Amino acid sequence: MAYENRRFSTFEHSYRCYPVSFIDKPHLEKGDKIIMPPSALDRLASLQIEYPMLFELNNPAAGRVTHCGVLEFIADEGLIYLPYWMMENMLLQEGDVVQVKNASLAKGKYVKLQPHTKDFLDVSNPKAILETSLRSYSCLTTGDTIMVAYNNKKYYINIVETKPSSAVSIIETDCEVDFAPPLDYKEPEKPAKSALLNRKRSEAEDEPAKKIAKFSPFTGFGRRLDGRPSTESVAPDSFPLLKQHQSEAQNGTKDSKSSNPASRQPSGKLVFGSNVNQPENEKSKVAPKNSSQEPPQKEEEPKFQAFTGKKYSLKG
């Protein structure tokens, strides 16, 4: 029974803290390991604390809590030495009192990080650099700011989120890492709405000028088949007259067909010399009708008629 009580008891002690640079160990700034006195090791061994040893650091004056590992037990009694970035997170000054308590943390599965500057994302392979740097860390706590040194430059990174708990162990574990936008990242500015509206209005005003004129059929200058110069041009205003001439021509052809059935020709075909064989009396009949229907017009030049004239035989 006494063995069980000793096994489940906890280690808790208060120490004055100083940065690791005081004992000429500046390389410890690249991790979260602390230096404790030898008496702490004796106490931890008697309690049979499981390895790796992890601790919770608490600054009751500022209400700050973080977690860390231990590297050596060589500090003077009553003192511990911390990385300076850890003292900044805890708002501790040289010689302040901090409470140290052993802790057991679950292995981390997911960590979300946020660099302070976008310069960290400009390095050749930030994830590989981060993986190498985190080998010096034992655990991560949500809300902390860790320091990653690379190429003689220090990069500060916030721990935004950890899973499955707010503090996790990263010793011998596969952990998914995600990045949040850096603190100094600025989204590209969008153009103002007023500028867009003015641009659309100017484009709408330019559209009528860019429109192409509509196609108007049967416009332009006419060409005669006999080569004579044309004195008239077809215009859109002449469409009614053209329709009137077509209707009159159809009436004339109907009258000619009814008076002389023998002179009917198949539609859609040309018969050479058909105008020559037409009787003169039919021409005289059609003329008065056209003259009665049409108003008196000015005399015009005789129109060219294709395939008219005398016939010649090859026999002579």
Q: Average pLDDT across residues?
A: 75
* Major sheet strand order: 2-4-3-6-1-5
The end-to-end span amounts to: 151 Å
Over the alpha carbons, how many angstroms does the gyration radius reach?
53 Å
**Element order, helices and strands?**
HEEHEEEHEEHEEEEEHEEHHH
What is the general shape?
rod-shaped
Count the DSSP helices: 8
User: How many distinct beta strands?
Assistant: 14
- What is the helical fraction, as a range of percent? 25-40%
Beta percentage is: 15-25%
Helix and strand composition category? alpha+beta
Uncertain regions spanning at least 5 consecutive residues: 1-7, 233-238, 256-263, 268-274, 281-293
What can be said about the biggest beta sheet? Answer: 6 strands, mixed
Question: Care to describe what's here?
Answer:
- This is Ubiquitin fusion degradaton protein.
- Residues 247-266 have a biased composition (Polar residues).
- Pfam families: UFD1_N1 (PF03152), UFD1_N2 (PF24842).
- Belongs to the UFD1 family.
- There is one protein chain.
- The protein is an alpha+beta fold and 316 residues long.
- The chain has 8 helices and 14 strands.
- The protein has helices spanning 2-7, 38-46, 84-90, 126-133, 193-210, 239-259, 274-277, 280-293; strands at 12-19, 33-35, 54-59, 64-72, 79-82, 97-103, 110-115, 139-141, 145-150, 153-163, 167-169, 176-179, 220-221, 233-234.
- The strands form 4 sheets. A 6-stranded mixed β-sheet has the order 2-4-3-6-1-5. Strands 9-10-7-12 form a 4-stranded mixed β-sheet. A two-stranded antiparallel ribbon has the order 8-11.
- It is rod-shaped.
- Residues 1-7, 233-238, 256-263, 268-274 and 281-293 have low confidence and may be disordered.
